[in-house]
Amino acid sequence: MPLQPSMKLISVDDHLIEHPRVWADRLPAKFQEPGPRIVDEPSPSGGPPIQVWYYQGKRFPAIGLNAVAGKRPEEYGVEPVRYADMIPGCYDPRARLVDMDLDGVWAGANFPSFPRFAGALFTAEGGDMELAHACVLAYNDFVLDEWCATDPRRFIPLVVLPWWDADACVAEIHRTVAKGAKGISFPENMVPLGLPSLYTDHWEGVLSAAEEANLPLCMHFGSSGSPPATAPEAPYAVTISLYGTNLMSATAHLLFSPVFHRHPNLKVALSEGGIGWVPYLLERIDGTWERHRWYQNVVKDVRPSELFRKHIYGCFIDDVFGLKNRHDIGIDNITWECDYPHSDSYWPHSRKYAEKVLADVPDDEARKIVETNARRLFNFWDDEARGVDA
C-alpha cells in the first residue's frame, strides 16, 4: 500500500461555506444593511423558513453551493436552503477538523462559496465599490483570523483580491501575507469578468507581488464565471463532464502568455479539473509552438511544456488515467484534492479511496502526490514534515 501511515493527505481543493456572521461581524455600521447578510424567508413549499444571502439589495439563494457531504448521490440535486441542511463541518472550522479526521485528511486549502471561488462576485456585481472592497477585506480577515487560526497546522489560508483595482490587489497581498496568507484564489480567466487579460501589462504589479511573497495563484474551475455549456437544453451533466476544459483553456492561455517569462518563480495551481488531459494538451501545445511560433507573438526559445513543469500544478480525486500517465505529466506537478463538501468528494472515505487509486504507485511518488508537492507549492511546512521532504 503506497499510503504509509506517515503520509499526510493534503487537499489543494476544499470549500468552506461562510457562516451567517462572516460579514456582519466585520463590516462597519454603514455597510451592515447593503453588505452580505442572511435573511430568513418563507418556504415556497410551506416548510421551515429558507435562508438566502442578500448583497447590495440582490438575492443570492444558494447558501450551500453543492454542500452535500454526507448525502447519497440519490439525494444530490437540491442545494441546501438552510444551514441545518448541511453538516456543521461545512461552515464550522472546529467541526471541519473532526470531519477531516474521519476522512483521513490532514490539511486542506479552502475556496470561498458565497463570494464565488476567486471572490469574483464583489467584482462582477459592481455597485458600491467601497463596500465591495470592505467585503474582500472582511472575507480575508475571516479566513486568516477565524477559520485558519483554529488550527494553522491544518488549514492553508487562501485569500481573495479586489480585482477591479490592481493597486488595491497589491496592497491586499502585502496586508494578508503579513497575516499568514499562503495562496491567492485567482480567476482562471480575467476576460469574462470584464477585466484585462494576462497578456497585458495590467497585472504586472499583482503578479510581481505574488511572486515576491511566494504565493501560488490557485485557479479553480469556474472562477471566471464561465463554465462550459453546449446548449440551453443540455443537462448540467454536460457541464460537469467538461469541467477540465476550463483548465485546459487556462493552461494554454498561460503557456503562450508572457506571465512565466516575466515571473520565473511564479506558481499556478489548477483545481477541480483532473490531470488526464495534461499529456495530450502539452503535446498539442508543443506541436503548435514548433510549427507556428515564428510568425506569432510568442516566446520562441522556450518550449511550453518546459514552462508547465516548472510552474503549473494539477490536482485529481479519482483520475486513474492521469495517474497511469503520471510520468508524462510530471510527478512533481501532481497534487491531490478532497473537494469537501462538494459532490465529487468521497468523504468520509477519502483516504481509503486514495489508497485504492494509488495502489500501484511507488511510495516515494505517492508521498509527493498526496503531501510534499502541496507543502512545497504553499510553503506549508512543520518540523515533522520537513524531515520527510521528498
UniProtKB/TrEMBL annotation:
<feature type="domain" description="Amidohydrolase-related">
    <location>
        <begin position="90"/>
        <end position="380"/>
    </location>
</feature>
<keyword id="KW-0456">Lyase</keyword>
<dbReference type="InterPro" id="IPR032465">
    <property type="entry name" value="ACMSD"/>
</dbReference>
<dbReference type="Pfam" id="PF04909">
    <property type="entry name" value="Amidohydro_2"/>
</dbReference>
<dbReference type="InterPro" id="IPR032466">
    <property type="entry name" value="Metal_Hydrolase"/>
</dbReference>
<protein>
    <submittedName>
        <fullName>Amidohydrolase family protein</fullName>
    </submittedName>
</protein>
<dbReference type="InterPro" id="IPR006680">
    <property type="entry name" value="Amidohydro-rel"/>
</dbReference>
